[in-house]
Amino acid sequence: LTYKERSREDLKIGIAGFYDRSSQLWEEVWGEHMHHGYYIPADRTDHKQAQIDLIDEVLQWSGIPDPSDPNTDPSTLPTKCVDVGCGIGGSSRHIAHKYGCTANGITLSPYQAKRGNELAKERNLDSQCHFQVADALDQPFEDESFDLVWSLESGEHMPDKEQFINELFRVALPGGRIIIVTWCHRDLEEGEVRLTKKEDKLLAKINRAYYLPRWCSVDDYVKLLEGKGAVDVRREDWSYIIAPFWKAVIKSSLNLKSVVGLLKSGFSTQRGAYAMLLMLRGFDKGLIKFGLITCTKPTSD
Asked: Helix, strand, or coil here: 158?
């Protein structure tokens, strides 16, 4: 069985529709953060806090100073953040509140943008946070607009990874921090030119459910960033840190409220729920990696 890759336009339409239909159910079950959690220790059960902790731990790992540390120089804290693939804005609002900065979030989903702005208003963060429908590969921002460029679990949706990196670089201020957290396939071993047929087949099934294009590796991202002249490029594999999350999501989907919501949400959301099992299989086999990549945009050419 083969799976034809979708065109860029088909992916945009599919992604928008998928998240328009599924985001309300996710929020009802899991809250405002539409991403993995930080599972250290591995047996923690406070799943919503684990999602918040993931944001803070990624920021710390990336070298963003802690505003609560009395030794932190305020001039080193971010003042303008862009959240590329923002969901309903959970990360944006958390970052805006944490640093007192502004946050602009973009998503392909009209529902997510609307809900993000509603939640910002409810939290009295609407003067700092703004969400809009826009394409991450053609962002509606001026060059050199943000000192923190944040992409949490959206890179996997990008059909043109090079253009994705180009846009992250374009909107970043010189000296600005770029943070990419994304699903990737494993790095190829020396002598390998591609994944195995079985691995490609598993990823193709996941792609159909989640409206994903062809996958890449963390190593591919690093090469793209280095090709742009990025400095302080670092990477890490956090697959083991987020591994318990998928089992928790699958378990949560088995309660009555979730089952009823899933039945109401339509076929694409139901197919996405099934694909969680495929994601778990990919993680278990070492094929799917939860990759962290960060770098700084050079201050001069």
From this structure: coil
* Strand pairing category for 102-107 and 129-133: parallel
pLDDT of residue 122 exceeding 60: yes
Closest CA to 183 of 149, 158, 200, 165: 158
Task: Report d(CA 8, CA 59) in Å as an integer.
Answer: 31
**How distant, in Å, are the alpha carbons of 82, 122, 200, 269 from that of 92?**
8, 14, 34, 25
Q: Are 294 and 63 in contact (CB under 8 A)?
A: yes
Rg of the Cα atoms in the chain: 18
Contact 220, 292 (CB under 8 A): no
Predicted TM-score of the model (pTM): 0.92
> In whole numbers, what is the pLDDT of the chain averaged over residues?
91
SS3 state of residue 79: coil
Task: Show the tokens assigned to 49.
Answer: 């806090």
pLDDT for residue 29: 81
Mean pLDDT for 204-218 is 91
Q: Which residue has the higher pLDDT, 211 or 130?
A: 130
104: nearest Cα among 179, 225, 53, 120: 120
The amino acid at 131 = F
The helix/strand/coil state of 247 is helix
182 within 8 A of 155, measured Cβ to Cβ: yes
Of 32, 177, 181, 182, residue with least CA distance to 101? 177
- Residues constituting the chain: 301
Residue where the block lists tokens 């731990």: 57
Q: What is the DSSP letter of 183?
A: E
**Which tokens sit at 145?**
């607009």
Give the pLDDT of residue 5: 80
Q: How many CB atoms lie within 10 A of CB 113?
A: 22
Q: Is 163 helix (H, G, I), strand (E, B) or coil?
A: helix
